[in-house]
């Protein structure tokens, strides 16, 4: 497993956990009337989603670039046959 695959595996597990934690913190802060902390938590979710879009686009571009070099690209979770 190379560094890119390891980073993708860690990212796929950590990103959803960060979103859930920020959602819980933002909701709890809003319920406790700490609005500035709630706004910061929800802004963090928005920025994380934006960053996720950038990362997914770069991952797609990398797979396209490798495909142009003759590598097989996976079109589904099971891989290509």
Describe the structure.
By secondary structure, the protein is mainly α. About 80% of the residues lie in helices and about 0% in strands. It has 2 helices and no strands. α1 packs antiparallel against α2. The longest helix is centred in the middle third of the chain and has 34 residues. The two termini are about 20 Å apart.
Low-confidence stretches: none
Using only CA atoms, what is the Rg?
Answer: 17 Å
Mean pLDDT: 83
Q: What series of H and E elements makes up the topology?
A: HH
Number of helices: 2
Distance between the termini: 20 Å
The 3D shape can be described as: elongated
In brief, what are we looking at here?
With about 80 residues, the chain is mainly α. The protein has helices spanning about 5-30, 35-70.
Task: Break the fold down into its secondary structure elements and pairings.
Layout: H1 3-31, H2 35-68
Helix pairs in contact: 1-2
Task: List its salient traits.
81 residues; 78% helix; 0% strand; mainly alpha
């Amino acid at each position: 497993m190379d560094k890119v695959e390891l980073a993708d595996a860690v990212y796929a597990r950590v990103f959803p956990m960060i979103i859930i934690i920020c959602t819980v913190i933002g909701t709890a802060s809003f319920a406790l009337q700490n609005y500035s902390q709630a706004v910061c938590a929800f802004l963090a979710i928005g920025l994380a989603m934006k960053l996720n879009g950038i990362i997914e686009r770069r991952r797609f571009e990398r797979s396209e670039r490798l495909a142009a070099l003759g590598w097989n690209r996976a079109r589904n979770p099971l891989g290509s046959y």
